[in-house]
Design goal:
Shape: globular
Number of strands: 27
Radius of gyration: 29 Å
Strand order of the largest sheet: 4-5-6-7-3-2-1-8-9-10-12-11
Oligomer: single chain
Length: 549
């Protein structure tokens, strides 16, 4: 949340060439940023009357929210963004996170006229414009200034349509050239210059949610309502009047959405449509814990002419969602933009009370801390015998005082390893673990063979190849072919990535096709996850764990 809000603000001063690196804010019109700043009129009094939506973040409250400290641990995942913000702070002397108190965006549409108002403390126009001028010069551009009334409008010569104005020592407004000129007229008290604070419908919508640290409100103009009512497909929402969203950040995240209609039947219809959608999604994603947790915290209903939806999520779960989303984003980034993996000291020993079986072996473990803020424990499980094997590896981790921390299990994705087959595994490592004892268990040969016949279908991997290195993970692409005489569900590919010494450096698994007919093929693209070292080769297995329909 910290970096998300900051970047949303900083990105808007790309006109100053800083690209996420040049934002400031103020405390209203010189006043404090306390209760008055959460007054909806304070969010609207600087933007033109024709504004239809407002999105606001009260950073002063967000900084002290219980979830914020936990999200601060995402610095590793958002490393490049954090570095840019820190570089901006070092160069400009302005720290957006500690000095911006509120960020408010208002406009007609996201693609039309908008303005962002930043309020905070310690804003120095001369110093920030000097920093922007230097950054633009490095990029072959120039910072241009022009006077309007008693204020100076700033823009880049190559982007004159984007303008910034410092209204006072605590207020910076960013927007299009036309809207900034109208905002200056409002601030100057020019005749006929009216602000959105004079729009009672929008003010009322803001008043419903503006006590939250994060909130949004929007109204539908009569012109748009007439268009909706004249469209057969959209007529059902033609009486929509306003939409509000408030997000409270306390011991849990509580987001409340309200859509006000002029007709109660339309609120009922929307509630019914949403209920059907959620029922379908719950069924389709019933085996995905993250989705089920989201659905569990979600309620929706019609309240007279208002459709309401509320989402309650534990803070730890929100952090987990943020980390997973960040990892997906970082997968496509160059490895040079992410922290390099660092070895994690870990000593693993076999359980002397349960000697490992002769037919199943475990490779040396590669333990390391990666850019995804996780500690990995990579190893390969190999079937050295001439019969199918059903292995399970249990690791009991211990801390520096030899106290038990956690127990992790590794079951290979295809459940059964065929003769002379191996698969990668990564059960992870508790952050404070320094040692562990592992036990390799196997089922009787008869059970492993029966499970292989009943549940596993082996598919053929064709033309697999490592894509050129260039991102945070190694990608493997190719085709998987169903060489059995049966239709299989969830045709998958598992890959183990190796370095030049043929030691494991990464592992991955992907569904290539939900259904694959006999003789049919499907393309796949599989990601390694954070690597211990660059991958030079790989081993891939095509399989399915679902029998014929």
């Amino acid at each position: 949340m910290r970096t998300g809000v900051i970047v949303a603000a900083l990105a808007c001063l790309a006109l100053a060439g800083c690209r996420r690196g040049s934002k400031s804010a103020g405390t209203g019109t010189g006043a404090g940023a306390g209760k008055q700043e959460r007054d909806p009129a304070a969010a609207l009094r600087l933007v033109p009357r024709d504004a239809l939506f407002v999105v606001a973040a009260d950073l002063a409250r967000i900084r002290t929210a219980p979830i914020t400290a936990k999200l601060g641990a995402l610095r590793v995942v958002f490393g490049p963004v954090v570095s840019q913000v820190e570089a901006f702070t070092a160069g400009s002397g302005f720290d957006p996170w500690t000095q911006i108190d509120s960020v408010t965006m208002a406009g007609v549409s996201l693609k039309g006229e908008t303005a962002i108002v930043l309020r905070g403390r310690g804003l120095d126009e001369a110093r920030l414009t000097a920093h922007a001028r230097a950054r633009l010069a490095d990029a072959g551009d120039e910072l241009v200034a022009r006077k309007l009334a008693k204020w100076t409008l700033w823009s880049a010569r190559k982007q004159p349509e984007s303008v910034a104005v410092f209204l006072d020592a605590g207020t910076l407004v960013l927007g299009s050239s036309a809207w900034i000129e109208r905002i200056v007229e409002i601030a100057d008290g020019a005749d006929g210059a009216t602000s959105a604070a004079s729009n009672p419908t929008l003010v009322a919508a803001c008043a419903q949610v503006s006590t939250n640290p994060l909130w949004a409100a929007g109204v539908l103009p009569d012109e748009a309502r007439k268009i909706l009512e004249g469209d057969l497909e959209l007529r059902s929402i033609g009486s929509m009047q306003r939409v509000t969203l408030g997000v409270e950040l306390a011991e849990q995240l509580d987001a409340k959405l309200a859509v006000d209609f002029g007709d109660a039947t339309q609120a009922d219809a929307l509630a019914e449509d949403v209920a059907k959608l959620l029922h379908r999604e719950r069924r389709e994603k019933r085996e995905i814990p993250a989705y089920q947790a989201l659905f569990k915290g979600l309620t929706e209903y019609a309240d007279g002419p208002t459709f309401r939806a509320e989402l309650r999520l534990a803070n730890d779960f929100v952090v987990q969602l943020a980390e997973n989303s960040a990892r997906l984003v970082n997968w496509g980034k160059p490895s040079s933009e992410l922290p390099a993996p660092t070895a994690h000291a870990l000593t693993l020993k076999p359980d002397w009370l349960a000697p490992p079986p002769a037919n199943v072996t475990m490779s040396d473990v590669r333990s390391y801390d990666a850019w995804d803020r996780r500690t990995h424990a990579l190893f390969e499980v190999a079937n050295r015998g001439d019969k199918p094997a059903l292995p399970e590896i249990v690791i009991r981790y211990r801390d520096g005082d030899d106290k038990k921390l956690d127990e992790r299990r590794c079951i290979v994705p295809m459940l059964v390893l065929l003769p002379h087959e191996s698969a990668g595994c990564d059960p992870g490592v508790p952050a404070t673990a320094v040692s562990g004892i592992y036990t390799i268990r196997t089922a009787p040969d008869e059970r492993a063979a029966a499970l292989a016949r009943k549940s596993r279908r082996t598919l053929k991997v064709v033309g697999a190849r490592l894509e050129p290195a260039g991102g945070a993970v190694q990608w493997l692409s190719g085709e998987v072919k169903n060489t059995t005489g049966e239709i299989v569900r969830d045709a998958r590919v598992h890959a183990t990535f190796h370095d030049a010494g043929h030691k494991i450096v990464g592992t991955g698994d992907v569904i290539a096709a939900p259904n694959l007919a006999p003789g049919a093929s499907a393309t796949f693209r599989l990601a390694s996850g954070p690597l211990f070292a660059p991958a030079k080769s790989f081993a891939a297995i095509g399989y399915s764990l679902v029998g014929p329909r």
